[in-house]
Specification:
alpha/beta, Helicase, Ruva Protein, domain 3, 3 domains, five-stranded parallel β-sheet, two-stranded parallel sheet, 22 helices, 7 strands, 61% helix
Length: 463
């Protein structure tokens, strides 16, 4: 199999994984660990891991980690023998690091099986089918398929269809992440998480758009800072609730702002850790008596000294009859009172639905009186977000491509409905653009840095 086809298979796998990673980014490292196991199973059946097998893994790794350096190396695999050998060694080391002291059994299928069962999603089948197709590509990457390699494929298939049972998805995920090699995680708290309120505010101000949100958060931070000084000097302070309602359409930065608020609260001394725990109705509501309270308690326990972010919170009050959404609300309100000095809760969703949600329950209304309103990004802001993604990943748009992109985003904006994806839409467009560019470049024999970095009008998708 040529390197061009190997790249195509790796891109195809990432395309299948991307929606899952958008919903559950915590799975990224676990996916890479399982894929590393599969590469080793397939490659070692022939006594060694070939260059194309390493290329396949490196490309998926670079796409998932958004590692521009490794993505460039993978796309330019054939250009320089010296660089190829260098990144072959890098990839082998990644494989060794990720599988060190790891059980051979795959963990991702079990987690997705549990996730689908609890949330009614359908990630399992598409994911394991894509991974198995990727494994077949790994086997064929050296150009032949031997009997030992066929047995390796059979082993992969069995592993993909073996499901471990967890008490619930969150506990299974937590246990799996705790066993993930530290080298598998590239995020550094000191680098990626703002350590002071000033750093968090600077990161907020660096975001595109959100002018009203930036002003509201700055005002809140100023107020809290003054209250803290008054408290330290023994002066009277004004009681303030840190809980908040985020109203607005999807993809407008609500989760990002919630994370930064946690850092601000920590930096000002109102929270000890300031971390963010995300959930939604599926993560809180169970189907049987007693299970909902346990799920909510587990979430609260994980969020103590930080922020619990509940997306689409209005769905908790949408059920009727035997629905346990109200039980989740009741337990949450009780825990908010029990841990009023250690827990901040931010509920988010469409503005009108969130207003109805808070107004529907006196307990909610009394605890949530701080509102932040998020608006749709304008076409110019959406274009700026796309260009920022390009800059981060070492891509650039030629002027004609930028014009085509703006016209497309303007048309989508003018025809938007309630489900308009905003930044999520831009992220999807960006991923499709670099996929289209990869397909365009795959037939070229010589790839310069300029060619690798440039997006042309034909790379911009047509919607």
């Amino acid at each position: 199999m040529s390197s061009r086809l190997v790249k195509k298979e790796a891109n195809s796998l990432y395309k299948t994984l991307a929606p899952l990673l958008t919903v559950e980014p915590r799975l990224a490292d676990l996916i890479l660990v399982d894929l590393a196991k599969i590469v080793q199973i397939c490659g070692q059946s022939n006594g060694e891991i070939s260059s194309n097998e390493l290329l396949a893994y490196l490309l998926v790794y670079a796409l998932i980690k958004e590692d521009a350096e490794k993505l460039k190396a993978a796309m330019n695999w054939e250009a320089s023998a010296e660089e190829r050998i260098k990144y072959q060694k890098v990839t082998v080391q990644i494989l060794l690091d990720l599988t060190e002291q790891q059980p051979q059994q795959l963990i991702l299928p079990s987690l997705l099986n549990q996730l689908d069962e609890e949330r009614g999603s359908q990630y399992l089948n598409s994911t394991i089918n894509a991974i198995y197709t990727f494994a077949q590509a790994i086997i064929k990457a050296d150009g032949t398929v031997s009997l030992p390699e066929m047995e390796s494929l059979s082993q992969v298939w069995r592993s993909l269809h073996h499901y471990q049972v967890f008490e619930n998805y969150e506990k299974g995920l937590t246990a799996a992440l705790s066993q993930t090699p530290k080298k598998a995680t590239t995020t550094s708290p000191s680098k990626d998480i703002p350590q002071t309120s000033e750093e968090a505010l600077a990161e907020l101000n660096d975001l595109i758009g959100l002018d009203n949100i930036k002003e509201a958060v700055q005002t809140l931070a100023n107020f809290l800072k003054v209250q803290k000084v008054r408290q330290e000097r023994g002066m009277a302070t004004t009681p303030v609730s840190l809980h908040a309602v985020f109203g607005g359409p999807p993809g407008t930065g609500k989760t990002t702002v919630a994370r930064l608020l946690g850092s601000i609260y920590k930096g000002l001394g109102f929270l000890d850790q300031g971390h963010l725990v995300e959930t939604d109705r599926a993560g809180m509501v169970a189907g049987y008596i007693g299970q909902t309270a346990t799920k909510v308690d587990d979430l609260v326990k994980n969020a103590l000294d930080g922020v619990l972010f509940i997306d689409e919170a209005y769905t908790l009050s949408a059920g009727e009859g035997s629905d346990f959404g109200q039980e989740a609300i009741d337990v949450l309100l009780k825990r908010m009172e029990d841990y009023r000095d250690r827990l901040v809760v931010i509920v988010a969703g469409y503005t009108d639905l969130m207003s109805d949600f808070v107004e529907s329950n006196p307990g909610l209304k009394s605890r949530f009186n701080r509102y932040f309103y998020f608006n749709d990004y304008t076409p110019s802001e959406l274009t700026a977000i796309f260009k920022k993604l390009c800059e981060k990943s070492h891509f650039k748009l030629v002027q004609d491509a930028e014009t085509k992109l703006f016209n497309l985003l303007e048309q989508l904006y003018l025809n938007r409905d309630k489900s308009f994806g905003n930044a999520r839409l831009v992220r999807n467009l960006f991923e499709k653009a670099i996929e289209r560019q990869a397909n365009r470049l795959a037939v070229l024999s010589l790839l310069t840095d300029e060619v690798l970095a440039t997006l042309l009008p034909e790379d911009i998708p047509n919607f």
